[in-house]
Design goal:
The protein is mainly α. The chain has 5 helices and 3 strands; from the N terminus they run H-H-E-E-E-H-H-H.
């Protein structure tokens, strides 16, 4: 999994360069560098900045937040309305009612592996989380 995430991070370099260029020319001057994809990385509890040449060790614990910065392809559609409503009503709302926030977030993450969410759908999920 780590090697796949490392490869995915490297594939996003053109978009990261585009973002970097955009922010360098904004009013107020250049911005501090910010890792946008491979975030909050720790290996065996020690902070590890992204390095494409980093070799994945045979053993240990890697923790990170992976953020996709490229946009979905043209024509990509979010999860269908019926499937989303089913997911919202039968999965997320019961977890929210039981105050199982960790499990709720895990279910959203798992669903986002297979589907995109529209902005409206994300808003509805966040509304459940904030009740």
């Amino acid at each position: 999994i780590c090697m796949v995430l490392q490869e995915l991070r490297s594939l996003q370099i053109p978009r990261l360069r585009q973002i970097h260029k955009y922010y360098q020319n904004r009013t107020g001057g250049p911005r501090d560098e910010l890792e946008r994809v491979w975030r909050n990385v720790k290996f065996d509890g020690k902070v590890v900045p992204f390095d494409p040449a980093w070799r994945v060790p045979q053993a240990g614990t890697l923790e990170l937040d992976f953020v996709q910065v490229t946009r979905p392809g043209t024509g990509t559609k979010p999860i269908g309305a019926g499937s989303f409503e089913d997911f919202l009503q039968n999965t997320l709302k019961p977890l929210a009612a039981a105050e199982e926030e960790g499990e709720l977030v895990a279910k959203v993450r798992a669903k986002s592996d297979d589907f995109y969410f529209s902005c409206e759908q994300v808003y509805r999920i966040l509304t459940i989380l904030t009740k």
